[in-house]
Write a structure and sequence with these properties.
Helix content is about 30%, strand content about 10%. By secondary structure, it is α+β, with helices and mostly antiparallel strands. Strands 1-2-3 form a three-stranded antiparallel sheet. Helix 2 packs across helix 3.
Length: about 150
């Protein structure tokens, strides 16, 4: 397929999505970010599953529901370890206590709870586990887990 055909397909798809009321990111909106001095920032290496760094320095966590495209927001945290612990707790809620292979910290899994896919219950357990006192992975800084700043 040549470049013209690809551009035509992309234009048709964008028109279709706009007609349905979907938001379309224009190419300029995902161009590489440049610093004030003109250099690109170093890419952030993803160390933990379900965790990413916001531009303003907060670490956020979210998880996909099994067999679905839907996601559950797990909150914003001051450290990547806390966000990763929130992901681990949500992972256990959604997949059960035997599913430790997908955890960020398999050596210290969250306590097993009843399986649920209710987003409010998953969020509550994830926030509680992320903020657990005495966690040897975390620095003890506060978080805003469960906040709606997604």
């Amino acid at each position: 397929m040549d470049q013209t055909a690809l551009e035509h397909m992309a234009t048709n798809l964008a028109s279709h999505l706009r007609a349905r009321g979907s938001h379309i990111c224009e190419p300029s909106s995902y161009a590489p970010i440049k610093r004030a001095n003109g250099t690109s920032p170093a890419p952030v290496e993803r160390k933990y599953r379900g965790v990413r760094l916001r531009q303003w320095g907060k670490w956020v966590a979210e998880i996909r529901l099994p067999n679905s495209l839907k996601r559950i927001w797990l909150g914003s945290y001051d450290s990547p370890e806390k966000a990763a612990r929130a992901f681990d707790a949500a992972f256990i809620c959604l997949r059960g206590g035997e599913a430790i292979a997908g955890l960020n910290f398999p050596e210290s899994p969250p306590t097993v709870v009843a399986r649920t896919s209710d987003p409010r219950e998953v969020l509550a357990y994830a926030t509680s586990h992320a903020n657990r006192l005495g966690c040897h992975h975390c620095t003890g800084r506060s978080s805003s887990g469960g906040g709606g700043d997604g």
